[in-house]
Amino acid sequence: MIGLTPPSRLVRRADFIACSKGRRVATAAFVLQERQRGDAAAPRFGFTVTKKTGGAVERNRMRRRLKEAVRLGAREAARPGSDYVLVLTRAALDRPFDTLLTDLTEALRRSAAPKAR
């Protein structure tokens, strides 16, 4: 899997806020927020870790783990024209990486499924 380029990133605060008003899928390690942009461009990802989850070293380690999971596992599952924000919880630090990948692909699949009424 060497040579995979990372997906596009969300950098503007307005994009993060727009995602927070979209669809949510909770897992043990993070909450996935999705917003449909309405175009066919590649999906974009943003990461949020609050200071409540730990010190800077731990927050950066959690963020790096999720960035790598997105790089490896989100290509097939993410929908084009969507923005995703991953709000990490403390469990992202200790969760096995394979389980983190499974959680991510499952959350992306659940966010793409039609809403049940």
Automatic annotation (TrEMBL):
Query: Is the keyword tRNA processing assigned to this protein?
Result: yes
Cited Gene3D superfamilies: 3.30.230.10
Oligomer status and interactors = Consists of a catalytic RNA component (M1 or rnpB) and a protein subunit.
Q: Which HAMAP family match?
A: RNase_P
Annotated signal peptide = none
Tell me the organism. Answer: Phreatobacter stygius
- Would you tell me the protein name for this molecule? Ribonuclease P protein component
Per UniProt, the keywords (alphabetical) are: Endonuclease, Hydrolase, Nuclease, RNA-binding, tRNA processing
Single GO biological process annotation from the record: tRNA 5'-leader removal
Q: Which reaction(s) are listed as its catalytic activity?
A: Endonucleolytic cleavage of RNA, removing 5'-extranucleotides from tRNA precursor
Q: What is its EC number?
A: 3.1.26.5
The residues that cross the membrane are none
**Name of the encoding gene:** rnpA
